[in-house]
Amino acid sequence: MIPEPFEYHIPKNLEEASRLLAQFGGEGKILAGGHSLVPMMKLRLAAPKHLIDLGRLTDLKYIRESDGRIEIGALTTHFQIQSSSLLKEKCPLLPETAREIGDVQVRNKGTIGGSLAHSDPAADWPAAILALAGEIQARNVSSSRWIPASEFFVDLLTTALGGDEVLTAIRVPVAPPRSGHAYLKLHHPASGYAMVGVAAQVLLNEARHIESASVGVTGVGPKAYRATAVEEALRGKAPSRQNLEAAAAHAAEGIDVNSDLYASAEYRSHLAQVYTRRALEKALERAHGK
Amino acid sequence: MKIQTKINGHLREDEVEPRLLLVHYLRDVAGLTGTHIGCETSLCGACTVLLNGEAVKSCTLFAVQADGGEITTIEALGNHEKLHPLQEGFWEEHGLQCGFCTPGMILAAYQLLCRNPHPSREEIRKGLEGNLCRCTGYQHIVKAIEYAAQKIGSPDA
Ligand SMILES: Cc1cc2nc3c(=O)[nH]c(=O)nc-3n(C[C@H](O)[C@H](O)[C@H](O)COP(=O)(O)OP(=O)(O)OC[C@H]3O[C@@H](n4cnc5c(N)ncnc54)[C@H](O)[C@@H]3O)c2cc1C
Ligand code: FES
Ligand code: FES
Question: Quick one: three-class SS letters along A216-273?
Fold first, then answer.
């Protein structure tokens, strides 16, 4: 389990990192926590000639609030998010998602930026960032842009990041009043990744009906997605079991559902519906509690 | 590439290939074979060490990523004359059979007790989710960690 040789680079700042990335073209890769990349290199599924280690750019590790938004630096680890008191108060869906990722050791090293950039079809962050209608910041040598989560995940392990772009931050709105959230995941028994993961956020109106719901789903198709048909079916509805069930029935609608050794497409679709309903129930319960 | 590390309190400087994994650095370069290699695929936790105070799987990091860092391996926790309370717990409560997973278990448990000195059984199990044991069935490992938590928490520890 020895990776192929590579050259190792330690950029002093973000500018240098993006310059190196541009310089090496397809032969260079960013190294963040390494907890997706190093296993792939050991299996020789990846063999970059150059690794550009962001590990020392500690100014990319932060969680802060401004203008009703939370911004998180790309290098922030899953554990830092899981244990952030700011997030527990202002955006509790994120710590709830973080604690479901891998194990203690993985959460100590793995980063939110790395997970999003990698975009594993069974990763947890994509579901949460989609449900929160987050945005992802990408920078190259000359410019920087915010990409809406809904446009970020393009296909299996493919994102909207350009080959010369470094993912630098994620931002999401602070959870509004009368809202509730939940992340529910069925862990794959061996790998711990999501067989199905559903992130939900619901907003109640004055009459305690559903003003809006947003639902991000991972593990089901080639990439994480917003279950828009579920969301539409809930708009303005009373939060009854019947309404939730009817809406959740659309959870895998229009998706090319994965089928593998562990779960057939039919079973996975069923799981997506059940986990969507349960996540909505839990989110509503919390919204009512407020 | 030249790297500097502090392993169990001792500074070292070594010339390493960038692709050298931290676990191989510890075992083959530093000669500290207490850290075990189980699965090599980031799943079993046998290779767990502390890097700058955090439990990590040393088979999933390159040694160059630990440059400038402090590493703690099982060798530093205690010795035959004076066992660390965790080691004593594993001894007293039969927390091991073959012992292959034990160094990793103990370092993961060490991290757990640093973050949460009085964990419930449930919290102990969650804290060990990255470590697999093929022998014990975990019950005695949980007890060993409860033993250690109690001992560390008692005034005469
Ligand atoms: C045992 C194990 C279990 C796991 N279980 C889960 C799980 O249950 N759920 C889950 O979601 N994940 C899981 N993971 C994956 C883990 O969360 C990874 O940490 C994460 O997917 C990648 O983050 P990283 O920082 O380690 O990225 P790296 O491995 O360093 O990088 C991953 C990819 O993204 C690119 N990249 C990284 N950062 C940037 C950046 N800032 N800009 C541009 N490109 C970048 C790299 O070039 C590489 O291609 C698991 C991993 C392991 C080893
Ligand atoms: S050898 Fe590192 S996790 Fe198994
Ligand atoms: S004691 Fe044998 S693997 Fe745990």
Answer: EEECCCCCCEECHHHHHHHCCCCCCHHHHHHHHCCCCCCCCCCCCCCCCHHHHHHHHH
Does residue A147 contact residue A160 with C-beta atoms inside 8 Å? yes
pLDDT at A290 over 90: no
Q: Which pLDDT belongs to residue B157? A: 52
Tell me which of B39, B87, B96, B143 to substitute to probe ligand 3's pocket, judged by most ligand atoms within 8 Å of the beta carbon: B96
Give the residue whose CA is nearest to atom 6 of ligand 1.
Answer: A102
B39, with CB counted inside 10 A (0-12, 13-18, 19+), is middle
Any atom of ligand 1 within 6 Å of the Cβ of A11: no
CATH architecture classification, B2-76:
Roll (3.10)
Q: Which residues make Cβ contacts (< 8 Å) with residue B124, sequence separation at least 6?
A: B109, B112, B142, B145, B146
DSSP string, B25-44: IIIIIS--TTS--S-SSSSS
* Domain regions of chain B by residue span: 2-76, 85-153
pLDDT, one tens digit per residue, over A139-150 is: 999 999 999 999
**Of B16, B21, B49, B19, whose CA–CA distance to B35 is shortest?**
B49
What ipTM was assigned to the predicted interfaces of this complex? 0.96
pLDDT at A41: 98
Length of chain B: 157
Assign A28 to helix, strand or coil. Answer: strand
Mark the ranges of chain B whose per-residue pLDDT is less than 50.
Answer: none
Instruction: Give residue ranges with CB within 6 A of ligand 3.
Output: B 96-101, 133-136
| Core vs surface per residue A267-290: b (16+ CB within 10 A) or e | ebbbbbbbbbbbbbbbbbebbeee
Q: Do A105 and B19 touch (CB under 8 A)?
A: no
Beta strands A7-9 and A50-53: pairing type? parallel
Rounded-to-integer distance, Cα B150 and Cα B157, Å? 9
- CA distance linking residue B12 with residue B31, whole number of Å: 12
pLDDT at A289 over 90: no
pTM (2 d.p.): 0.97
Q: What average pLDDT does the structure give for chain A?
A: 97
DSSP A59: G
Residue-level pLDDT at A28? 97
Pairing of strands A166-173, A210-218: unpaired
CATH architecture of B85-153: Orthogonal Bundle (1.10)
* CB-CB neighbors (< 8 A) of B59 in chain A: 1, 42
